[in-house]
C-alpha cells in the first residue's frame, strides 16, 4: 500500500461504527451516490464511476458475522459464506461461478467473499457492463444470496471437507499466537470465543437444520446492503434493484442485531503467548478505547490528530532504531480496531534476543516524552506537509479511483457509518482540518491518548525464548519508572542543504529511435549512451511510472560473494543518499511524491520508481544520486546483521521456511549459488563487499535503459538530459548475464521429509520444467494450462474430495537466462489424503496430454485473458512493464488485433500438443513435507 492511501485510510478510518441503531454520522453522504431503502429494509447504494471503463463491481454486504453465532454454531457464519457458491434458487450447483466465468469474470480474482466477526461481504468485480443479460444475472446472484441459498444436505457435507482444510491451512504460527492472546484482549467478551473459522468438531458434526436456522435468522434484507459501483446508468440500475430485490420477504418478527461488548477494566491485563515457529519476540501495550457513537467532524478532527501523533512518534522511534544503541529491532505505534464498538492505541516493540523488557522501556520512554513535552513545531510542520501532499495527490487522481475502492468505502459507510464524501468535499474537510491544527491543540490532545484504564500488555515469541519473557510486575514497574523519571524534550537538527549541490548541465541527445509496435513511445540515446524510452499517457491524472534495467545482475557475482550481493541494495536504500543519512533524506523528501529504488536481480539490475508531475525532477535526482553518491552506513549494516541474527535464532523451527529452502535447493540441483538464509549467510555478509558489489552493478548509464510512462511534464526531456545524461558511463562496456544452470537435475527429483508440527498438515510442491522455443503463443499457452489445471483441481481436489482448501497452479515461460517453461503447483492437505490427492494431481496432468481439454473451460479462460488485457491497457503499470520486458527481451508489442488473433489460435489441439511436450521433455521436482506425528486432526 502506498503512503498516500495509508494516510487517507488512517485519517478517515480510525473510528469505526455501524449504520444501524446507535451508529450514526451527521456528515451527509456524497450526492453522487444514489441510495434508498426498500420496504423490506434492504439498503442500496449506486455510484457511477469510470475506473475501469465499461466495468462494474457488485457488493452484497451483510451486517452479521461470527459474533452472532450461538455456541453450537461456532463457525457456521463462515461455512454459510462458502455455501453461497454451492447452489441457489436460480443457479443450481456451481451455476454462479459457471455463469460468471463464461463472461470472463474469474473466481478468486473477480468473485470473492470474506466473513469477519461482525460482517460478511461478497463481491463480484470487473463485470462487463455492455452485456445487459450478464448485469441482470449478476443482480439475481445477489438476490439469491439474500435468502435463496439451496443449502442441500449433499452440498453441506461436501463443503465440510473444504472447511476442514481451510482450518488446517490457516493454523499458522501467527494464528496460534492470536488464539492465546485473544482471551486476554477480549476477557469476558464473546469475541474471545469466535475466531470465525470455528470449532472443527462443530464443522464436522452440526445438523443440517442448524445452518439453515442461522441463515434464516440472520440473512435478511433489513441487515443487508447492495452496493453497485461502475460505468453504469444509475437510474436504470436503481430500477433494476427495486424490481429484483423488493420481492424478498422480511419476517414480521426478527431477532435484534446486538453488538458484543468488551468489558471495561481498571486492572492492567497481561498475557503471554509462545509458539515454536514464532520468528521473533514482541511486546505490545494496548489501550482499548470506545468508538464514538456519532461520527461527526469532531471525531474526524480527532482522527487527524491521532494520525499526526502516530506519525510523529513513529519518526522518533525510527531515529532511535537507526542509532542502534538500544534493545529493540523495531518500534512502532498505531491505532487498530479490535471490535465493532472498540478501537485500540498500541505501542509495540520487537526485541533483540533476551532484551524484551528493555525494548519495552525504550518504546514507553519515547511515548512518555511526547506526552510530557509534546511535538516540536518543525515536527508538526513536516507532518502537515506530508499529509497535505498525500491529499493533493489523491485529488489529482480522483477520477482514477477504482470501483472496488469506492465500494469498500460504501461498505464501511453502511456497516460503520464512516463518512463517504465526494473527493473534493473530502479534500476540503481534511485539508481544512490539517491546516487549522495548532501545536498547542495537538500537544494538549497527546496528553489524553494514554489512559490509565483498559490497558492490555501482550508478550509473544518462540517457545525457546518464553523463559525470558518479562512478567506483569516487571512491565508495571517499568511503566512507573518511566512516568517518574527525568526526561529532556526532543531536539533535532535540520539539514537544509539541496539534494544535489553540484550544478548539472543537460547532456545532448545523440539520436532518436522508434519503439516497435508502440507508436506513441519515443526513444532517445543521450551523449553518455543512456537509452531513454518515454511514453506519454492519460491513464491517470497525475502519475509517472519509472523503471530501468541493464543486464548482468547477480549472475556476474562470484559465488562466495553472493551473500553480500543479497544485502547490497537493502543496505544502500537504508543508508540515505549524497549528504543525507536515512532520516535526513526522509525529511528532505517530506511532502514529495517521488521514489526510486535500486535492485540487483538474478540476471539484471535496475530501478523501480514513481512520481507525480510536480516531483518528477526529485525522482530523477534520486536516480542520479543512487548512481553517483550512494551511501553505505556501517550503523545500518550492523542493524541489518542484528535483525538477521535475531531471525536466524528462530527460523530453524519455521516449517514454512524449511519447505521453501528445500524447494529452492531441489529446483537448482543443489547449486552452490542457491540463496539460503542460514548461519553461513550471516557469517559471510560483509559491508565492504556489499558496497563494492553495488558500485559495480549500479554504474555505467550507457548500459542502462530508462523507461518513463504517464503524465509526462513538458520539461521531461531537458530534466532527463540533466540528470540521467550526467551519470558516468563507459559506452564500450556492454555486459550480459551468465547462465549458471540453476535448474533441477534431469529426470525426477523427490524430496519427502517430516517435521514436528502443532497441527498435522502435509504440504505438497510439484514443478515440471524444461526448455522450449520461446513464442508469444507458447507463453500464453503455458498460462492457459496453469488455469485449466486450477479449474480441474477446484473441481476434483477441493469440491469432490474436500482434500484441500485450494491448489495454487501457475504455468509460465521465461526467456532469461534461456527459454524455460515451468508448471508448478502447491497445496496443503490432510496427511491421510496426501497419497490419494497426488494420484489425482498426476491423473489431471496426464489427461492434458491424452485427452482434449474441456472446451468450455478453455473458452472461459480465453475470455478472461481478453477481458484482463482490455482492463490492463488502461494502466500505466501495464505499459511500463510491457516496455521493460519488450526492451529487455527484444520482443515486439502485439496490437489488439494481433493479440486477439493469437488467443483465437489457442485451441484444444494446441494445448494438447504443448502438454505432450511438457510431459515428454520435463524434469520434475516433487517436495512433500509431512508431520512427524499426527495428533488426530
Question: What topology emerges from the helices and strands here?
Answer:
Layout: H1 3-13, E1 24-25, E2 34-37, E3 43-48, E4 55-62, H2 76-83, H3 95-101, E5 111-115, E6 120-128, H4 132-147, H5 153-170, H6 173-185, H7 200-205, H8 208-218, E7 224-230, H9 234-245, E8 269-275, E9 281-290, E10 294-295, H10 297-323, E11 328-337, E12 342-351, H11 356-373, H12 377-396, H13 403-416, H14 423-436, H15 439-449, E13 455-462, H16 472-484, E14 509-514, E15 522-526, E16 531-536, E17 544-551, H17 562-575, H18 582-588, E18 594-600, E19 604-611, H19 616-628, H20 634-651, H21 655-667, H22 679-684, H23 687-697, E20 705-710, H24 716-723, E21 748-755, E22 762-771, H25 776-800, E23 808-814, E24 820-829, H26 834-850, H27 855-872, H28 876-889, H29 896-905, H30 908-921, E25 923-931
Note down, in words, how this protein is organized.
The protein is α+β, with helices and mostly antiparallel strands and 937 residues long. Helices cover 43% and strands 19% of the residues. Strands 14-15-16-20-17-19-18 form a seven-stranded mixed beta sheet, with helices on both faces. A hairpin with a 4-residue loop joins strand 11 and strand 12. Helix 11 crosses helix 15 and helix 26 packs across helix 30. The radius of gyration is 29 Å and the shape is globular. The two termini are 37 Å apart.
Distance between the termini: 37 Å
Helix content: 40-55%
The rounded Rg comes to 29 Å
**Strand count:** 25
- Which residues sit in consecutive blocks of at least 5 with pLDDT less than 50? 1-6, 8-21
> Helical segment tally?
30
Largest sheet report: 7 strands, mixed
- Shape descriptor: globular
Give the overall pLDDT as a whole number.
Answer: 95
Beta-strand content bin: 15-25%
Strand order of the largest sheet: 14-15-16-20-17-19-18
Provide the structure class.
alpha+beta
Amino acid at each position: 500500500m502506498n503512503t498516500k492511501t495509508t494516510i487517507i485510510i488512517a485519517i478517515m478510518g480510525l473510528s469505526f461504527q455501524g449504520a444501524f441503531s446507535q451508529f450514526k454520522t451527521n456528515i451527509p453522504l456524497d450526492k453522487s451516490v444514489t441510495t434508498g431503502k426498500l420496504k423490506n429494509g434492504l439498503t442500496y447504494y449506486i455510484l457511477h464511476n469510470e475506473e475501469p471503463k465499461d466495468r462494474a463491481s457488485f457488493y452484497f454486504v451483510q451486517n452479521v458475522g461470527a459474533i452472532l453465532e450461538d455456541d453450537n454454531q461456532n463457525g457456521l457464519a463462515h461455512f454459510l459464506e462458502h455455501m453461497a457458491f454451492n447452489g441457489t434458487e436460480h443457479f443450481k450447483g456451481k451455476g454462479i461461478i459457471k455463469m460468471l466465468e463464461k463472461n470472463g469474470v474469474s473466481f478468486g480474482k473477480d468473485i470473492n467473499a470474506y466473513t469477519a466477526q461482525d460482517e460478511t461481504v461478497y463481491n463480484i468485480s470487473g463485470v462487463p457492463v455492455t452485456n445487459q443479460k450478464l448485469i441482470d444475472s449478476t443482480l439475481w446472484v445477489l438476490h439469491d444470496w439474500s435468502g435463496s441459498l439451496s443449502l442441500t444436505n449433499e452440498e453441506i457435507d461436501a463443503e465440510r471437507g473444504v472447511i476442514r482444510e481451510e482450518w488446517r491451512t490457516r493454523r499458522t504460527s501467527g494464528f496460534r499466537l492470536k488464539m492465546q492472546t485473544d482471551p486476554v484482549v477480549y476477557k469476558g467478551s464473546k469475541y474471545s470465543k469466535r475466531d470465525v473459522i470455528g470449532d472443527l468438531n462443530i464443522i464436522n458434526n452440526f445438523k443440517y437444520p442448524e445452518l439453515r436456522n442461522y441463515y434464516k435468522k440472520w440473512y435478511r434484507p433489513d441487515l443487508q446492503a447492495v452496493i453497485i459501483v461502475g460505468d453504469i446508468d444509475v437510474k436504470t440500475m436503481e430500477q433494476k434493484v427495486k424490481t429484483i430485490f423488493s420481492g424478498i420477504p422480511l419476517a414480521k418478527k426478527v431477532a435484534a442485531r446486538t453488538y458484543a461488548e468488551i468489558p471495561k477494566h481498571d486492572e492492567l491485563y497481561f498475557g503471554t503467548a509462545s509458539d515454536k515457529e514464532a520468528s521473533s519476540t514482541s511486546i505490545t501495550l494496548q489501550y482499548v478505547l470506545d468508538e464514538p457513537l456519532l461520527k461527526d467532524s469532531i471525531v474526524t478532527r480527532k482522527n487527524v490528530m491521532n494520525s499526526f501523533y502516530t506519525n510523529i512518534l513513529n519518526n522518533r522511534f525510527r531515529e532511535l532504531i537507526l542509532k542502534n544503541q538500544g534493545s529493540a529491532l523495531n518500534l512502532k505505534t498505531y491505532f487498530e480496531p479490535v471490535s465493532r464498538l472498540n478501537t485500540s492505541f498500541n505501542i509495540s516493540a520487537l526485541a533483540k534476543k533476551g532484551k524484551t523488557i528493555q525494548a519495552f522501556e525504550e518504546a514507553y520512554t519515547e511515548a512518555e516524552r511526547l506526552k510530557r513535552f509534546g511535538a516540536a513545531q518543525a515536527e508538526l510542520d513536516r507532518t502537515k506537509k506530508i499529509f497535505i501532499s498525500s491529499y493533493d495527490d489523491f485529488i489529482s487522481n480522483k477520477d482514477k479511483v477504482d470501483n472496488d475502492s469506492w465500494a469498500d468505502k460504501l461498505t464501511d459507510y453502511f456497516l460503520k457509518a464512516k463518512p463517504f464524501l465526494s473527493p473534493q468535499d473530502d479534500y476540503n474537510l481534511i485539508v481544512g482540518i490539517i491546516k487549522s491544527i495548532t501545536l498547542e491543540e495537538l500537544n494538549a490532545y497527546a496528553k489524553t491518548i494514554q489512559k490509565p484504564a483498559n490497558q492490555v500488555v501482550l508478550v509473544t515469541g518462540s517457545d525457546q525464548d518464553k523463559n525470558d519473557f518479562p512478567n506483569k510486575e516487571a512491565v508495571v514497574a517499568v511503566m512507573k519508572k518511566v512516568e517518574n523519571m527525568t526526561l529532556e524534550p526532543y531536539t533535532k537538527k535540520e539539514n537544509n542543504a539541496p539534494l544535489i549541490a553540484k550544478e548539472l548541465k543537460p547532456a545532448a541527445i545523440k539520436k532518436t529511435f522508434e519503439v516497435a509496435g508502440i507508436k506513441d513511445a519515443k526513444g532517445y540515446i543521450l551523449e553518455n549512451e543512456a537509452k531513454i524510452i518515454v511514453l506519454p499517457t492519460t491513464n491517470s491524472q497525475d502519475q509517472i511510472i519509472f523503471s530501468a534495467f541493464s543486464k548482468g545482475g547477480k549472475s556476474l557475482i562470484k559465488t562466495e560473494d553472493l551473500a553480500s550481493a543479497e544485502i547490497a541494495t537493502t543496505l544502500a536504500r537504508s543508508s540515505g543518499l549524497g549528504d543525507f543519512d536515512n532520516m535526513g533524506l526522509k525529511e528532505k523528501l517530506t511532502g514529495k511524491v517521488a521514489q526510486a529504488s535500486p535492485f540487483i536481480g538474478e540476471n539484471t539490475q535496475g530501478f523501480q520508481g514513481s512520481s507525480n508531475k510536480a516531483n518528477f525532477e526529485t525522482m530523477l535526482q534520486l536516480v542520479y544520486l543512487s548512481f553517483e553518491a550512494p551511501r553505505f552506513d556501517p550503523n545500518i549494516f550492523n542493524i541489518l546483521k542484528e535483525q538477521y541474527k535475531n531471525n536466524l535464532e528462530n527460523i530453524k523451527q519455521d516449517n514454512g521456511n524449511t519447505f521453501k529452502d528445500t524447494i529452492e535447493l531441489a529446483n537448482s540441483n543443489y547449486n552452490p549459488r542457491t540463496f539460503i538464509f542460514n548461519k553461513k549467510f550471516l557469517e559471510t555478509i560483509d559491508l565492504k563487499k556489499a558496497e563494492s558489489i553495488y558500485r559495480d552493478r549500479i554504474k555505467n548509464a550507457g548500459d542502462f535503459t530508462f523507461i518513463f510512462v504517464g503524465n509526462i511534464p513538458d520539461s521531461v526531456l531537458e530534466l532527463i538530459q540533466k540528470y540521467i545524461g550526467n551519470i558516468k558511463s563507459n559506452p564500450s562496456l556492454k555486459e550480459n548475464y551468465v547462465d549458471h544452470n540453476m535448474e533441477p537435475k534431469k529426470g525426477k527429483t523427490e524430496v519427502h521429509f517430516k517435521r514436528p508440527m502443532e497441527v498435522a498438515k502435509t504440504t505438497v510442491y510439484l514443478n515440471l520444467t524444461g526448455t522450449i522455443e520461446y513464442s508469444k503463443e507458447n507463453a500464453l499457452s503455458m498460462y492457459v494450462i496453469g488455469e485449466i489445471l486450477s479449474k480441474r483441481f477446484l473441481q476434483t481436489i477441493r469440491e469432490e474430495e474436500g482434500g484441500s482448501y485450494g491448489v495454487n497452479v501457475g504455468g509460465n515461460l521465461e526467456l532469461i537466462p534461456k527459454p524455460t517453461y515451468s508448471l508448478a503447483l502447491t497445496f496443503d492437505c490432510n496427511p491421510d489424503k496426501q497419497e490419494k490427492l497426488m494420484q489425482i494431481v498426476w491423473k489431471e496432468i496426464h489427461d492434458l496430454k491424452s485427452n482434449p481439454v474441456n472446451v468450455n473451460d478453455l473458452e472461459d479462460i480465453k475470455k478472461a485473458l481478453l477481458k484482463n488485457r482490455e482492463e490492463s491497457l488502461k494502466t500505466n503499470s501495464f505499459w511500463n512493464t510491457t516496455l521493460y520486458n519488450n526492451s529487455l527481451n527484444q520482443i515486439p508489442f502485439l496490437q489488439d488485433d494481433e493479440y486477439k488473433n493469437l488467443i483465437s489460435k489457442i485451441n484444444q489441439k494446441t494445448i494438447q500438443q504443448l502438454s505432450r511436450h511438457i510431459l515428454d521433455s520435463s524434469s520434475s521436482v516433487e517436495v512433500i513435507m509431512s508431520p512427524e506425528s499426527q495428533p488426530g486432526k
